[in-house]
């Protein structure tokens, strides 16, 4: 089973080879109480140690497939289930320094049963999580 | 006169525990241990691989139903009318979603299905496709013997055009397979604590309903003929079995007086620390069962039931 927090400690890691890091990934469990069509997910904002990486520039990986933020809207029949994690991929040449980082995330969700003025709503989490290498 | 309530638990109660500290077997165990007879699930949450569960998952489901003796009650379904950022479902698409979920609910043994339609305003008016979509599946619901029951849920009170429209639909079609699901959050009469991320400004405006919309329990009588299922929404019950928000001491006698003998299916919606929900649900069952016993004792005449009409 996944960690209780939305932001998972396991999975937080740099991408690319040592000496040639291209960015990093943040692993999130489904923050909502029901599974969501990806078309209802309007991207994920990530902030690390105060530096913001906006949803428009981040992609997500669900069950091994990578989707850009703009591609999500068409994915009406692809579901992010409860108890399932996605990886948010952030481009950041050089990656993150090994050590503990303050990570904040906002998953923007469009709940059709919320009043239009609350679509999308930000589903937030923040944790101290660790890059090992 | 005084048929008993049926007691159930919605696995919604265990939100955040489910999939982090609780699997489906654990959930069945905790529901069974309350002494409830019914279990309610959310299709898109508790059916692994929704909408195409594997054979292994189906086997697991039927084994749990068989060994627990629990009866599947209500199957929660979503009709995501605003399915894309700029795309709305058609009546036919809404009907197709209902058709799919009715068949799944039936396959899993459920007798009720709550569709949650997207809404178009702050009053939670369902998207207008609801009526045509539901009408297209009424024959299927009859064939599968499932009652489709949208919820009356805060901030929508009982006396409201949304409810009037549902009742008018029942009267126009004459269907026995569409009814009302009452969510007891409409009776909340004291403020909820702020949710994570909620601000005082939000509470003063759009979220003011979280202070409680205080529907008088007497108004249940106006719709009781159409109420087929009740979700016992609650938020916190303390160690003296005092509910801090929902007036059970008025709701239970009102329902008993009206002869309601359907399900009360717990929906805990409070602090989401691990395992808190398990104890909260147990407290609610203890509280409502006690109030039901008190009502029965106070209304049990020494002789025949006819005396209650005197």
Mean pLDDT of chain A comes to: 97
Largest sheet of chain B: 9 strands, parallel
What pattern of helices and strands is seen along the backbone of chain A? EEEEEEEEEEE
Strands in their spatial order, largest beta sheet of chain B: 5-4-3-2-1-9-8-7-6
Instruction: Tally the helices of chain A.
Output: 0
CATH fold description of chain B: TIM Barrel
Number of domains of chain A: 1
Proper CATH architecture of chain B: Alpha-Beta Barrel
Write the H/E string of chain B, N to C.
EHEHHEHEHEEHEHEHEH
Oligomer: heterodimer
Taken from the alpha-carbon principal axes, the silhouette of chain B is globular
The number of helical elements of chain B comes to: 9
User: Any low-confidence stretches of chain A, pLDDT <50, length ≥5?
Assistant: none
Helical amount among residues of chain B, as a percent range? 25-40%
Overall mean confidence score, pLDDT of chain B: 95
Query: Mind telling me the CATH class of chain B?
Result: Alpha Beta
> Strand order, biggest sheet of chain A?
1-2-9-6-7
The CATH superfamily of chain B is Divalent-metal-dependent TIM barrel enzymes
Low-confidence stretches of chain B: none
Shape of chain A: globular
């Amino acid at each position: 089973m996944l960690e209780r927090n939305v932001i998972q400690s396991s999975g937080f890691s740099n991408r690319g080879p040592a000496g040639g890091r291209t960015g990093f990934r943040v692993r999130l469990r489904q923050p909502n109480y029901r599974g969501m069509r990806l078309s209802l997910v309007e991207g994920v904002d990530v902030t690390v140690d105060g530096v913001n990486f906006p949803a428009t520039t981040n992609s997500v990986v669900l069950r091994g497939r990578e989707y850009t933020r703009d591609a999500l809207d068409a994915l009406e029949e692809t579901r992010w289930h409860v108890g399932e994690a996605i990886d948010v991929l952030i481009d950041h040449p050089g990656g993150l320094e090994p050590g503990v980082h303050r990570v904040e995330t906002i998953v923007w969700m469009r709940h059709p049963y919320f009043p239009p003025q609350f679509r999308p709503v930000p589903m937030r989490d923040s944790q101290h999580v660790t890059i090992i290498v | 006169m005084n048929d008993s309530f049926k007691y159930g638990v919605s696995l919604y109660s265990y939100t955040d525990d489910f999939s982090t500290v609780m699997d489906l077997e654990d959930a069945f165990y905790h529901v069974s241990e309350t002494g409830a007879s019914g279990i309610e699930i959310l299709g898109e949450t508790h059916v692994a691989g929704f909408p195409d569960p594997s054979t292994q998952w189906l086997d697991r489901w039927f084994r749990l139903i068989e060994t627990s003796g629990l009866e599947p009650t209500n199957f929660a379904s979503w009709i995501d009318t605003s399915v894309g950022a700029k795309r709305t479902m058609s009546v036919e698409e809404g009907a197709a979603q209902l058709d799919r979920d009715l068949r799944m609910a039936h396959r899993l043994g459920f007798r009720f299905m709550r569709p949650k339609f997207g809404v178009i305003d702050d009053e939670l008016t369902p998207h207008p496709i609801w009526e045509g979509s539901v009408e297209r599946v009424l024959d299927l619901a009859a064939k599968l013997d499932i009652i489709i029951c949208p919820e009356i849920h805060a901030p929508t009170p009982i006396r409201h055009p949304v409810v009037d429209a549902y009742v008018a639909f029942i009267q126009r079609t004459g269907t026995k397979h569409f009814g009302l699901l009452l969510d007891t959050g409409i009776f909340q009469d004291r403020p909820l604590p702020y949710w994570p991320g909620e601000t005082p400004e939000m509470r003063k405006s759009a979220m003011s309903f979280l202070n409680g919309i205080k529907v008088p329990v007497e108004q249940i009588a106006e719709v009781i003929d159409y109420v087929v299922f009740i979700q016992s929404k609650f938020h916190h019950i303390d160690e003296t079995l005092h509910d801090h928000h929902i007036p059970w001491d008025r709701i239970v006698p009102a329902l008993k007086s009206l002869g309601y003998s359907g399900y009360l299916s717990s929906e805990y919606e409070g602090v989401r620390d691990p395992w808190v929900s398990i104890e909260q649900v147990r407290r609610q069952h203890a509280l409502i069962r006690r109030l039901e016993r008190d009502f029965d004792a106070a209304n049990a005449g020494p002789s025949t039931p006819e005396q209650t009409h005197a």
